[in-house]
């Protein structure tokens, strides 16, 4: 059978986007449309160029798949509507939120919000990676005033079909070599510098001073210029293989986000046998389930108690193994592959 052709549009290439491209390539012929949209002053140029690229591809492909809503999703949605090509937009988090207090969310910027509005309205189907991206209430971080988030909060009249497709993970990419390799008192978190407050880096910094004998690491960013505790180490941006090694050599994982589209690093760490402490937002409690601890509020004292609770576990090895098994069973890469492939092949049958 002849493979269908897909134009995949993305502004970035994080690991979960590369994973989706690989998933699609197994069943479809995939062309990539990418411009460096992070150079904001060039966005009008990219917007102009992309129009012709998408228009040209509209006669060559069977569907458009867009990762993240934004300026880059407008032309695929509109041209797809005009030429009756199915357009799917995968929503990851920032494209469903507006949190000015944390300088986070595409929807806090009027022009970018307008781009998302038109994209979501004219697309065939929206594919958020968690149910919380449609509607959620944030009560973890008390500094946030804009607590109601999700696309239905920002676009209440949206009629486009929405199907949640959770992220999926390959246990072979994130292996577990044994609990005995993990030093006692070793904690890891993953975030970039702009995400420091959003992902709870400030809280980790505070609690590190309370546990001078424990080892806290943050991957994804270099050391800040401001003073920080001696037992808090910044590893910089790591390639996947090195990050996997860091997970395997850490006993606990901290996902203290004030908002989190899904929590890919959390799932990767649990696959690697890390026992997590996570915030009570979005999909994080469902990822952790009974295989870690949930922090109800962003509070140093509560985190201190949670860390002491983890340190006093009678059978941490068992929880470590169960955390990995939970991710393998609940979020397999095969399930995401099956759902996305079925959507692209049989969308009309589901309407």
TrEMBL record:
PANTHER family per UniProt: GLYCOSYLTRANSFERASE WBBK-RELATED
One Pfam family from the record: Glycos_transf_1
Organism field: Cyclobacterium plantarum
Domain Glycosyl transferase family: start-end pairs: 228-325
InterPro entries in the cross-refs: Glyco_trans_1
Alphabetic keyword roster: Transferase
Designated name of the protein: Glycosyltransferase family 4 protein
């Amino acid at each position: 059978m002849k493979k269908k052709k897909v134009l995949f549009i993305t502004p970035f290439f994080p690991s979960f986007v590369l994973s989706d491209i690989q998933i699609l390539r197994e069943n479809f012929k995939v062309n990539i449309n990418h411009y460096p949209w992070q150079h904001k002053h060039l966005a009008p140029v990219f917007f102009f160029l992309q129009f012709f690229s998408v228009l040209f591809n509209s006669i060559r492909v069977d569907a458009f798949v867009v990762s993240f809503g934004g300026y880059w999703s407008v032309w695929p949605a509109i041209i797809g509507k005009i030429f009756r090509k199915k357009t799917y937009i995968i929503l990851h988090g920032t494209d469903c939120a507006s949190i000015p207090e944390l300088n986070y969310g595409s929807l806090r910027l009027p022009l970018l919000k307008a781009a998302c509005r038109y994209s979501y309205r004219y697309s065939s189907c929206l594919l958020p990676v968690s149910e919380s991206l449609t509607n959620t209430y944030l009560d973890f971080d008390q500094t946030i005033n804009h607590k109601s988030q999700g696309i239905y909060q920002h676009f209440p009249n949206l009629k486009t079909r929405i199907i949640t497709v959770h992220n999926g993970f390959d246990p072979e990419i994130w292996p577990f070599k044994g609990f005995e390799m993990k030093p006692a008192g070793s904690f890891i978190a993953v975030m970039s510098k702009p995400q420091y407050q959003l992902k709870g880096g400030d809280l980790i910094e505070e609690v590190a001073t309370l546990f001078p004998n424990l080892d806290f690491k943050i991957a994804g960013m270099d050391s800040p210029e401001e003073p920080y505790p001696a037992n808090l180490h910044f590893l910089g941006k790591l390639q996947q293989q090195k990050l996997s090694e860091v997970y395997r050599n850490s006993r606990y994982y901290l996902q203290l986000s004030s908002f989190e589209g899904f929590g890919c690093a959390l799932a990767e760490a649990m696959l690697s046998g890390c026992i997590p402490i996570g915030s009570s937002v979005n999909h994080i409690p469902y990822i952790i389930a009974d295989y870690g601890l949930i922090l109800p509020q962003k509070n140093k004292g509560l985190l201190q108690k949670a860390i002491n609770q983890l340190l006093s576990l009678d059978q941490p090895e068992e929880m470590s193994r169960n955390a990995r098994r939970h991710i393998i069973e609940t979020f397999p890469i095969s399930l995401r592959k099956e759902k996305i492939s079925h959507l692209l092949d049989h969308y009309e049958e589901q309407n």
